[in-house]
Amino acid sequence: MFDAYLIKKGDTIDKIADRYGVTSEFLMDINNLVYIDEFREGRELIVPKIEDVYFNTYKVEKGDTLYQISKRFNLNPELLSALNGIDEKDYIYPGQDLLVPKNGYSYYITADGDTLETVKDVFNEPMNKLISNNKSIYLLPNQLIVMKKSDN
Which CATH class is domain 105-148? Predict the structure, then answer.
């Protein structure tokens, strides 16, 4: 899920990325910014909206790897790295906080060419449920879409 952020005087891409716990490259990608000079005061950016209803925080311990953490929480390593704005091969360090999805939700990271229909089919849920579970759906590549799992 994402929010809009209006760039203010003195903001840098790195400061905003740090504030939202992602890399500046991730912000550049999700906002389709090719050149840093496209980043300027008054421009609106798409930034991650991190709500604790969907995530827990895991503090990396010495010797941890993304793969080990993924296995511990029964997650796909690609999802864990994408949620945290890092590459699967990136070094993680002790004390670093990672977002870990809570149980009871399904997660999908959008790809280029996704439509509401294709995303709906991923979850196998009705369109109205997809929309009600996600305040904003931009369908830009790398957008996180969340679906509360149905109680059966």
Answer: alpha beta
- Closest residue by Cα to residue 27 from 37, 39, 40: 39
Q: Which CATH superfamily is domain 55-101 in?
A: LysM domain (3.10.350.10)
- Beta-carbon count within 10 A of 5 CB: 19
**Predicted model pTM:** 0.57
The ranges assigned to domains in the chain are: 2-48, 55-101, 105-148
Q: pLDDT for 53-101, tens place per residue?
A: 778 889 999 999 999 999 999 998 988 988 888 888 888 999 898 989 8
- Is the CATH number of domain 2-48 3.10.350.10? yes
Strand partners for 46: 4
Tokens of 63: 């010797």
Type and span of the H or E element at 99: strand 97-101
Q: Give residue for tokens 């997650």.
A: 75
